[in-house]
Design brief:
The protein is mainly α. It is built from 8 helices and no strands. Helices cover about 60% and strands about 0% of the residues. Keywords: Heme, Iron, Metal-binding.
Length: about 160
């Protein structure tokens, strides 16, 4: 079993990268899930505004990352990244193919605001799961709040010029 786990992690490391995972997220997840919403805005939306501020139908990617790595429902041991990667990949495949609110890692106070997740069985390939695993594992190192604001301001300026 340990050999299989090592081979699996080696395969992930060889073929999966953040950008490929971002492409999968953008193509197959972003119609329901926003990529990044600042945590203070998410807190205000759910704790003060009962989701009337953002009207989210699914958690943002950064909220999923928070749930995976920082919440009480986090997946795996952060001190063993290779095994954590295997556990996250397994969780993604299991949950996305058979969504169940009782198996969700989402915060309970926000979960009731989301629509029921439909199965992604047959929509995501094994490579997609590997790439999404890497995307979520490397999210914090690649998506920074200040970069999101910078990109939004650049887009606003371009739209005013056009």
């Amino acid at each position: 079993m340990k050999i299989i786990s090592i081979l699996f992690v080696f395969t992930i490391a060889l073929f999966a990268n953040f950008e490929d995972g971002k492409k999968v997220f953008d193509a197959k997840c972003s119609s329901c899930h926003k990529e990044y919403i600042p945590m203070n805005l998410l807190k205000e939306n759910f704790l003060e505004k009962n989701n009337t501020l953002l009207n989210l139908k699914a958690p943002s990617a950064n909220l999923i990352v928070w749930a995976m790595f920082d919440s009480s429902k986090k997946i795996g041991d952060e001190n063993d990244k290779e095994f954590q990667e295997i556990e996250i990949n397994g969780y993604l495949k299991s949950y996305l193919e058979n969504p169940d609110r009782f198996n969700s890692i989402c915060d309970d106070s926000a979960l009731g605001h989301y629509e029921n997740k439909s199965s992604m069985k047959g929509v995501l390939s094994e490579d997609d799961y590997l790439n999404l695993t890497t995307y979520f594992m490397e999210f914090k190192n690649n998506i920074k709040e200040e970069d999101v604001y910078k990109n939004q301001n650049t887009l606003k300026k371009k739209n005013k010029i056009s």
